[in-house]
Design goal:
about 450 residues, 5-stranded antiparallel beta sheet, Phosphatidylinositol 3-kinase Catalytic Subunit, Chain A, Domain 5, 5-stranded mixed beta sheet, 3 domains, alpha+beta
Length: about 450
C-alpha cells in the first residue's frame, strides 16, 4: 500500500509499506526544508526506512481500544486491519500539521458535525458515547479513553475500555467508562490545577460530568492546522505500547536534540513543573505519549501545553501504580532529595525555584479543591472519587513539602481538604462480553 503525506495541506512525501514489517517514506523532489514531516526526519533525497509497520510519527495517532474495534468492524472487511490500512482511513484527521491519505484523496472531506454545546448539556452515558464514537470513527485520536475530534464536526472512541476519545477540527471529545467512572470530571479538575501553574489545554466538562471537551492547541481559532506536534514516544522512536518504557533523562536529551538553545530554559522549567504536578496530583499516567513538543519550524520548538492530567490514585485499581516515567533509575512516589537533585541537574532549576513551583501548585489546589467539593455535592457518583482525589492531592503535597524532599513545613490546603475520611472503594463495574448460553460451563 502507498499513501500520500501532506504538511499543512501540501503533499510533500510518499509513504510505502515494504512487506509486513517495514515501511519507507520518501520526500518529493520539490519538498522544501520547512516541509519536514517529523522533527526526526528532515527533508532529504534518500528515503527513510523504518524496521516496523510504520514510522513513529505515523504510529502516534493510530487508534486504540474501542475506536480501533469500531474501525476494524467498519473497514476491515474492505481494506484489511493493518496499521497502514487504518492510517489510510484516519490519517486525514490527525493531531498536528501532517495528513496521510490515499493518493488523490480530498484532505478536507467534511466531517460529520457534532453539537458540542448539546454534548455539554446532554446524555453522555457510556452507551450514548459509544454510539457517538461509531458515528465519528474515522477521527484519528489515539488513547484508551473514549475520545474524538470535532471540526464543528467531531469524532470518538469508547466501550468497556478505560476511556473513549474523538477528534474534531477544534476539539478533542472524551468520555468516561465503567472502568474509570467520572474520569472526564477528574481530568477537568486536574487540568484546572495545571492551568494555574503552566500552559495547559483548556477544558470544559459536561453538566453530567461524563464528557470532556478539550480545546485543541495545534490549530488556530478557526480550526486551521498551524502547529506540528510530536509526543515523546514518536520522538524517541518508541511504539505507543512502550509509552511507559522511557526515562526523564532520555526525554531531556531529546529536548536538547530538537529544541533551540534559546527555548530550552522555558521548556525545562515547564517539564520540571509537569514532573512536580505528577507527584502533587498523584498522576501515574504521565507517560511518553502525554508529553509532547509543538512547533512551526525547527527554529520554533516548544513544549506542548500540558494535557491528559488526572489523579489515577482516586481509582482503587490504579492507586498503587508507580509514576509512569522513571528518573535516576526508579519509579517511586517517595523520591526523597533525589527529586530536587534531579530537577536541578537535568532541568537547571535551583531548589528555590522548585519550592516556588510547589507553592504555586498548593495555591492552585486550594482554589480548585473548592470546585472538587462542589462537584462531589452535585454528582453523587463522584463523591468517593472526589474524596479520593482530595486525599491524594493532600498526600502528594504533604510529601513534597515534607523534610524528605523540600522541607517547606506543614501543608494547609484549606477547608476543602478537612474532615475527609478514607473513601469507600469505588470498584469499576465490569461486564462480561461475548458470553453465550451456547458455550458450555465447566462442571
Amino acid at each position: 500500500m502507498t499513501l500520500s503525506v501532506s504538511v499543512l495541506g501540501r503533499e510533500v512525501a510518499t509513504l510505502e509499506a515494504l512487506g509486513d514489517f517495514k515501511s519507507s517514506m520518501t520526500y518529493h523532489d520539490g519538498a522544501a526544508p520547512a516541509d519536514f514531516v517529523s522533527l526526526t526526519m528532515r527533508v532529504r533525497r534518500d528515503p527513510y526506512i523504518w524496521d516496523d509497520v510504520l514510522h513513529p510519527i505515523f504510529q502516534m495517532n493510530l487508534p486504540e481500544g474501542y475506536l480501533l474495534q469500531v474501525l476494524q468492524e467498519q473497514f476491515g472487511p474492505h481494506i484489511g486491519a493493518s496499521p497502514m490500512a487504518l492510517l489510510s482511513v484516519i490519517g486525514r484527521n490527525m493531531i498536528g500539521r501532517i495528513q496521510v491519505a490515499p493518493p488523490g484523496a480530498n484532505l478536507e472531506e467534511p466531517a460529520k458535525p457534532v453539537d458540542v454545546a448539546g454534548l455539554l448539556q446532554g446524555d453522555n452515558s457510556e452507551e450514548a458515547f459509544a454510539e457517538l464514537v461509531r458515528q465519528h470513527a474515522t477521527s484519528g485520536v489515539s488513547g484508551v479513553v473514549p475520545k474524538f475530534l470535532d471540526s464543528d464536526a467531531e469524532k470518538i472512541e469508547t466501550g468497556t475500555h478505560k476511556k473513549t476519545t474523538l477528534f474534531t477540527h477544534r476539539h478533542i471529545i472524551k468520555g468516561s467508562s465503567r472502568l474509570l467512572p467520572f474520569v472526564s470530571l477528574n481530568e477537568h479538575l486536574c487540568m484546572q490545577v495545571t492551568r494555574k501553574v503552566m500552559p495547559a489545554a483548556m477544558t470544559e466538562v459536561s453538566r453530567d460530568g461524563q464528557a470532556l471537551i478539550v480545546h485543541r492547541f495545534d490549530v488556530d481559532e478557526n480550526g486551521v492546522r498551524l502547529w506540528g506536534m510530536e509526543d515523546f514516544c514518536a520522538l524517541l522512536g518508541l511504539r505507543p505500547a512502550n509509552k511507559y518504557e522511557t526515562t526523564w533523562e532520555r526525554i531531556s536529551r531529546a529536548v536538547r536534540d530538537h529544541v533551540p538553545v534559546a527555548n530550552r530554559p522555558e521548556v525545562f522549567r515547564q517539564m520540571a513543573t509537569m514532573l512536580l504536578l505528577t507527584y502533587a496530583l498523584r498522576n501515574a499516567d504521565c507517560h511518553a505519549k502525554n508529553v509532547a513538543l509543538r512547533y512551526t519550524r525547527h527554529e520554533d520548538v516548544h513544549l506542548a501545553p500540558a494535557y491528559d492530567m488526572i489523579t489515577t490514585a482516586a481509582y482503587p485499581d490504579y492507586a498503587n501504580n508507580p509514576p509512569a516515567i522513571s528518573f535516576m533509575g526508579k519509579k517511586t512516589w517517595e523520591p526523597g532529595k533525589n527529586l530536587q537533585t534531579f530537577i536541578t541537574a537535568t532541568f537547571g532549576l535551583s531548589p528555590s525555584e522548585q519550592v516556588h513551583i510547589v507553592d504555586q501548585i498548593g495555591t492552585a489546589m486550594v482554589e480548585v479543591g473548592r470546585q472538587v467539593r462542589e462537584a462531589m455535592a452535585e454528582h453523587s457518583g463522584f463523591s468517593e472519587i472526589g474524596k479520593g482525589m482530595l486525599l491524594a492531592w493532600k498526600e502528594g503535597m504533604t510529601a513534597l513539602r515534607g523534610k524528605r524532599i523540600y522541607a517547606m513545613g506543614d501543608t494547609n490546603l484549606g477547608e476543602a481538604f478537612t474532615t475527609l475520611t478514607a473513601p469507600e472503594l469505588v470498584k469499576p463495574e465490569r461486564r462480561v462480553i461475548g458470553r453465550s448460553d451456547l458455550i458450555g460451563r465447566n462442571q
